């Protein structure tokens, strides 16, 4: 249930690896299901490297995308709930707690339409104890139905990252199965065993499984906030973040991964999962623990606004009517997902201060940017603010722009002709590299001032 960023790729890989299992992915969004069924594979609702190939191999063989919720549920022996669990935006817990209405509606659909024995697997990221809610809903249906229905609820959270979803699903560090019913756990484990070595299939109690997912995301996000905090200190002290990363990352206890400084973490999950963890801690009276994790979020917000304000400050304290080329709008490369992308806040801050943004992204559409910025291309809603436009020709856009800001580290941006681009800019010009993708040696040769995250910058007075 749920044909999104998790349900689509996860179930496609299960179908690919288990040709003898029939997989049906359902969604309440009929348009999304039509896109998953589109003969032109360029129109799949999400972009993930390797996904097209998997769909091509399995679709309409043992992988189906359907809007027929009733029939699909009634035929299923095992159901993965992969629906959205965003932060609540109103009511109790607003701004922190997860909104479980989609999980609840899925459970109610299962309760209504399932037949015989059904194993329900929580794939969505949920607060600890959500399985209890699902069990409660299912229990009410099993007792009232004249045909006996039975259920087993398991937790098997998904750890894939966008942009590498297929690789992560095909070769995960581990999969987690939390539950009490040993038979149901064995059935799910048998599916994973088709391609995952059994020592990577970890079994825990259901609450540990639910909590491990929130904890994994909190730890990952914490690393990003930690390195981003140090990036600011590097800039003021003359230390180089890349050297610090190399030095600390070679300690096996710290490890070298997930230490790239950035304009802040984005994506649909880190923010919502940390906020959810904070909510849970407060709910259980652990206020100091809640405050500790909330700092990870504060640091992330601080980093985004630190960058937009330093851009303004370096451009003589005003960006009013200045043209700024923004490279990248997705929250990371190799995805068209813009949810919580740091580009959103940075662009909003610059537009609010009067800038004219020229935004490029290899995969994000103009319409998506309009939605995220809440502002149509070329418009400023008659407010005294700047505006933005979508551009595809980076060289042309650079002509007479005042600055370039690299926000997402797409591979193609690393390979641009930076000397030429720098020459095209109106002087004095600036290059802001928020991801550290241009070698400092090259930046030093350019005909522009520069700021690179976590490194000493080249300013007017240098
Ligand atoms: P998404 O919004 O892309 O997809 C969820 C889909 O579920 C939507 O298409 C929605 O229409 C559908 N849906 C909602 N209620 C439904 C119902 N009752 N019946 C049928 N369909 C229904 O969300 P996502 O990014 O795939 O995330 C899903 C869950 O997985 C979340 O809990 C998220 O935290 C978790 N997760 C996401 C990622 C990621 O990289 N995006 C990774 C790991 C875990
Ligand atoms: C993240 C986790 O990595 C997945 O394991 C998890 O399943 C998923 O969240 C989820 O629950 O949704 P994702 O958000 O897709 O995956 O992407 P990441 O690669 O984790 O990147 C998240 C953000 O952190 C991006 O904006 C990225 O640019 C940023 N980041 C990442 C850094 O700033 N520095 C780093 O070193 C790594």
Note down, in words, how this protein is organized.
This protein is of the alpha/beta class. It is built from 18 helices and 13 strands. The chain has a six-stranded parallel beta sheet with strand order 10-9-8-11-12-13. The mean pLDDT is 96. The structure holds nicotinamide-adenine-dinucleotide and uridine-5'-diphosphate-glucuronic acid. Uridine-5'-diphosphate-glucuronic acid (UGA) is lined by residues 125, 158-162, 217, 220, 224, 258-260, 262, 265-270, 331-332.
Q: Which small molecules are bound?
A: nicotinamide-adenine-dinucleotide, uridine-5'-diphosphate-glucuronic acid
Largest β-sheet summary: 6 strands, parallel
Mean of all residue-level pLDDT scores: 96
Give the helix tally. 18
Instruction: Give the strand order, joined by hyphens, for the main sheet.
Output: 10-9-8-11-12-13
Q: How much beta, percentage-wise?
A: 5-15%
Question: Span between N and C termini?
Answer: 58 Å
What global shape is seen? globular
Q: Which spans of ≥5 residues are poorly predicted at pLDDT below 50?
A: none
What is the share of helical residues? 40-55%
For the secondary structure, the number of strands is: 13
């Amino acid at each position: 249930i749920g044909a999104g960023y998790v349900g689509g790729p996860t179930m496609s890989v299960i179908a690919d690896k288990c040709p003898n299992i029939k997989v049906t992915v359902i969604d309440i969004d009929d348009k999304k299901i039509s896109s998953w069924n589109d003969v032109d594979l360029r129109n799949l609702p999400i972009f993930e490297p390797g996904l097209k190939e998997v769909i091509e191999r399995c679709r309409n063989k043992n992988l189906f995308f359907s809007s027929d919720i009733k029939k699909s549920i009634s035929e299923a022996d095992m159901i993965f709930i992969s629906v959205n669990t965003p932060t609540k935006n109103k009511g109790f817990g607003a701004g922190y707690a997860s909104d479980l209405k989609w999980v609840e509606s899925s459970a109610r659909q299962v309760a209504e339409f399932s037949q015989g024995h059904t194993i329900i697997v929580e794939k969505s990221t949920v607060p600890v104890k959500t399985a209890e809610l699902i069990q409660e809903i299912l229990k009410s249906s099993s007792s009232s139905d004249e045909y006996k229905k039975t259920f087993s609820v398991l937790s098997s959270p998904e750890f894939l990252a966008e942009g590498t979803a297929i690789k992560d699903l095909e070769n995960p560090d581990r999969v987690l199965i939390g539950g009490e019913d040993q038979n149901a756990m064995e059935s799910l484990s048998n599916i994973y065993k088709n391609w995952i070595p059994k020592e990577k299939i970890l079994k825990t109690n259901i609450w540990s499984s639910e909590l491990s997912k929130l904890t994994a995301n909190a730890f990952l996000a914490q690393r990003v906030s930690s390195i981003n905090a140090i990036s600011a200190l590097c800039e003021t002290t003359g230390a180089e973040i890349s050297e610090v990363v190399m030095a600390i990352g070679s300690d096996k206890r710290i490890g070298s991964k997930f230490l790239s400084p950035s304009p802040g973490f984005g994506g649909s999950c880190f923010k919502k999962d940390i906020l959810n963890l904070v909510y849970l801690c407060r709910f259980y009276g652990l206020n100091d623990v809640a405050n500790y994790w909330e700092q990870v979020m504060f640091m992330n917000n601080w980093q985004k606004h630190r960058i937009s304000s330093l851009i303004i400050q370096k451009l003589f304290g005003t960006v009013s009517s200045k043209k700024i080329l923004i490279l990248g709008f997705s929250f990371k490369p190799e995805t068209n997902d813009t949810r919580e992308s740091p580009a959103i806040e940075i662009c909003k801050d610059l537009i609010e201060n009067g800038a004219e943004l020229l935004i490029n992204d290899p995969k994000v559409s103009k319409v998506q940017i309009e939605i995220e910025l809440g502002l149509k291309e070329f418009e400023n809603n008659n407010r005294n603010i700047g505006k933005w436009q979508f551009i595809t020709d980076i060289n042309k856009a650079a002509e007479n722009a005042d600055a370039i800001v690299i926000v997402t580290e797409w591979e193609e941006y690393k390979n641009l002709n930076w000397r030429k681009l720098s020459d095209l800019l109106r002087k004095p010009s600036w290059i802001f590299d928020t991801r550290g993708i241009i070698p400092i040696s090259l930046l030093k040769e350019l005909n522009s001032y520069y700021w690179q995250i976590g490194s000493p910058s080249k300013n007017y007075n240098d």
